[in-house]
């Protein structure tokens, strides 16, 4: 392994990690506010990429396509999740989990039937590279990292200081009390669904020129996202973002030494060990 290879994979890990962070942060947000595990989050990533592909084909304006595609998918997917999950709120979490899993399968098969199973790709909007020490790296890939980090930081600040962010945290901590104090809980639910879906759609649109899109791409995305969310603590927005970068780097740098499939197995094993350790700690605290 040369220094150039190491630096290239380090940057590739940041690109993957910043994109995964958007998807995982959306899952963490939903669980933190509504205690819902959304299995369709990866498919919203897929729909966001397809929306940009359609938009770019119609307008030939990539920036406009990303903005419009993210907004459209966020609203449509958010309302779809609301209609699906609203009747199940307050009931067993397994029911909502199964409902979102069913939605994921429907979206995947629907896209396959309508668009086809072949991969779609658009050219990067910027065919410019920058020199970073001994390597040359695409400027667009660096913009993906910058945009992803900027969105996550803005989201964290909004959750902490903005009115709707305070409402989200209030509902997450004590839903009945928040309602009594005048927080519009139904509006907060819908907002959480829309923001969560929009984060996944934005990630899909940004990564389209780098990875392409197919109907099954959501399965890989949701797999890594759940590893991140479980390891970082369900509902932990900040933890999900940080661990996404770690997983992205582990996947990228690990592939220099071992096959990517084995890297994935190692990540699974680490998550299992982490869950077992947490379970033992919780058992010990209960005994105390």
- Total number of helical segments? 11
Helix content: over 70%
Number of strands: 2
Under CATH at level 1, the class stands as Mainly Alpha
What is the CATH third-level topology name?
Answer: ABC transporter involved in vitamin B12 uptake, BtuC
Structural class: mainly alpha
| Oligomerization status of the protein chains | single chain
Instruction: Give the SSE string.
Output: HHHHEEHHHHHHH
- Uncertain stretches of 5 or more adjacent residues: none
Shape label: globular
Strand order in the sheet with the most strands: 1-2
The name of the CATH architecture is Orthogonal Bundle
Report Rg.
Answer: 19 Å
The biggest beta sheet is recorded as: 2 strands, antiparallel
Number of self-contained structural domains: 1
- End-to-end span in angstroms? 50 Å
* Average pLDDT for all residues: 84
What is the percentage of strand-forming residues?
under 5%
Could you characterize what this model shows?
This protein is an all-alpha fold and 288 residues long. It has a single domain (3-257), classed as ABC transporter involved in vitamin B12 uptake, BtuC. It is built from 11 helices and 2 strands. It has helices spanning 3-34, 41-59, 62-85, 93-115, 139-161, 163-173, 175-180, 185-211, 217-232, 237-254, 260-287; strands at 129-132, 135-138. It has a two-stranded antiparallel ribbon with strand order 1-2. Strand 1 (129-132) and strand 2 (135-138) form a beta hairpin. Helix 1 (3-34) runs antiparallel to helix 10 (237-254). The model has no long low-confidence stretch (mean pLDDT 84).
């Amino acid at each position: 392994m040369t220094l150039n290879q190491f630096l290239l994979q380090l940057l590739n890990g940041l690109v993957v990690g910043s994109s995964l962070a958007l998807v995982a942060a959306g899952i963490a947000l939903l669980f933190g506010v509504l205690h819902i595990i959304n299995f369709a989050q990866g498919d919203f990533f897929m729909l966001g990429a397809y929306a940009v592909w359609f938009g770019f084909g119609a307008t030939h304006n990539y920036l406009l396509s990303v903005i419009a595609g993210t907004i459209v998918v966020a609203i449509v997917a958010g309302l779809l999740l609301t209609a699906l999950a609203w009747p199940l709120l307050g009931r067993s979490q397994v029911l909502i989990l199964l409902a979102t899993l069913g939605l994921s399968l429907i979206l995947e098969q629907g896209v396959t039937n309508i668009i086809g199973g072949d991969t779609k790709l658009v050219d990067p909007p910027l065919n410019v590279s920058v020199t970073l020490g001994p390597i040359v790296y695409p400027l667009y890939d660096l913009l993906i990292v910058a945009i992803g980090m900027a969105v996550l930081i803005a989201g964290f600040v909004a959750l902490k200081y903005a009115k709707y962010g305070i409402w989200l945290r209030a509902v997450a901590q004590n839903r009945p009390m928040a309602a009594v104090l005048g927080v519009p809980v139904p509006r907060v639910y819908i907002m959480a669904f829309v923001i969560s879906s929009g984060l996944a759609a934005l990630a899909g649109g940004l990564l389209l020129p780098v990875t392409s899109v197919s109907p099954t791409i959501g399965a890989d995305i949701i797999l890594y996202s759940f590893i991140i969310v479980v390891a970082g603590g369900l509902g932990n927005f900040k933890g999900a973002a940080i661990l996404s970068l770690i997983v992205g780097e582990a996947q990228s740098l690990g592939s220099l030494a071992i096959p990517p499939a084995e890297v994935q197995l190692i990540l699974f094993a680490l998550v299992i060990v982490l869950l077992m350790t947490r379970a033992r700690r919780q058992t010990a605290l209960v005994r105390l």
